[in-house]
Each structure stands twice: as structure tokens, then as C-alpha cells.
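Hey L., structure's done. Input below.
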Amino acid sequence: MATRRPAAEQPVAPKLKLDPAAIERGVAKLGERIAELRAFNVTSVPNGNSPELTALSTDIKGTLERYFGENTSAYRRFQGAAHLQLRPVVFGDNYPQRHHYQDGAKGNIAQSIVLLESAQRALLEDLEEARHEGASLPAPKIPEAKSHSRRVFVVHGHDGEARETLARYLHVLGFEPVILHEQANQGRTVIEKIEAESDVKFAVVLLTPDDVGRSVKEDDLKPRARQNVLLELGYFIGKLGRDKVCALKRGDVDIPSDFAGVVWEKMDDGNGWKLSLARELKAAGHEVDLNKAF
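Output:
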């Protein structure tokens, strides 16, 4: 009697080699996947397979294959992040029901987020290694880099949570956030305080939906940043240049067309904005340890 041979396991593929720019894109893309998982509404899961979870699983699998390589040891370590749906092995009269699928999806999503965050850290380690391997010659020194101020001006509206999150992150990267209301007034007007404290080499502007407004030709009110925030954004673009200003959008904010060309980054829950801001600071000539970006 013939016996069935067990399927041969695929050999482990060699580790994928990416250049630093590709690794940085991978870290950001994993952050997007994490944000999508956190935003997923588990109560939408039906009694059975969820098409939305299937699409999310496919996207996660594609991202892992792209930045870790198919069937590599690193890919196998994180491939469980693509398993989001409940896969019952037994069925009964009362199992599984819809709430079982929802509870299973909730637990699998939490596990997926943990694995994807671990994958981000692995890519950051690869990034550091790639930079060392590529440094066959001493890195060119930027003469003014050492004299660059570590002070970063923070322009903000009424969103205190976003302001404090940004300030803490700048501290982690080794920068000193300059927040206007924390500085002594000394009898000065607001614009005088801005001028006095604007001895910085970089500014981050938080665009949060604190006001609403419309043009006379429009009927609907649109969420927008406070007018003083837009004024200070224009001030620092003129003083520092567009490449030394990074605007972080949080939520739905109407952006004036006059500010086209400014670097915009979405302040997302997946923290992809942290790596983007770190890259902008580095491009502006500052020393930034990207390992601290997460």
C-alpha cells in the first residue's frame, strides 16, 4: 500500500538586503498597517469571514514580503501578523457565533500590532547596520551641523494632547521644544515674544481643527487651524525656509492653497509621523538617532 510522503518544507531564503531609504519606507509602511489595525471596528465582523479583515491580512502580508523577503527567517518570525480572522476547528450548535468571531478578531488584531511593532524595531536595527556597512568612507561633515541649535519652535493651537506628545518626542530625540506660552512675557506682545524666541533652526507647526470658517462664496463651514497658527507658519517659512519647517496635520483640517509646497505629515495614531519628522530634522542638518524614532 502506497503511503503519502509529507510535503517538503521550503528552504529558508537568504536575508533580504535593502538600502537605507527602502528600510525607512518599510518602517513607515508598517506604521500605516498598525494605524489601520487600531482603527478597525471589530463590531463590524460578521458571523463568518470578514472581507475587510481579509483585505487587511493581504496588505500586511504584502508589506512583510516586500520589506523582509518571501520565506526568509525574518518573514516567518512576523508572518503571524497577517492572521486576523478566527479559524474555528470545531463546530457545534452554539459555536461559533458572531461574538466568537468578533472576540477572535480582537485578540488576533492585538497580537498583530505587537508583531508589527517588533518588525519595525527589526527594520530599525537593519537600518543602523546598513548605514555602518555603507560607510566605506567617512561621512562628509556639514560644517555648521555642530553649531546647529537643538531648539525647535513648536507652533500649536488648542490641542494640548498633540502639543505635549510632540514635545515629549522632541525631548526623546535630544531637542529642546520652544513653546511660546511657557516663556516669560516680560511685558512683550505675542509677536515680540515670537521674534525673541525664534533663534531656532527648525520649526514644527501643529495644524489641528480648532476653528471653523468659510469663504463668502461657500455655504459649509470647514474645520481649520487657528489663524495665529497660520500666521506663525508663514513667519517661520519666511525666516527659516520651507525645508526647515514641518507641518503636522491632526484630524480633518482645511489647508489654504497659499501654503502649497510646505512639507505636510499626517499625525497618525500609528506614529508614522515620528519617523517622518526625524527624517526632516536629519535632512535639515541635525544629528538624529533614528533608533529613537520609535
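Confidence is low (pLDDT under 50) at residues 142-147. The first strand starts at residue 151 and ends at 155.

-- N.
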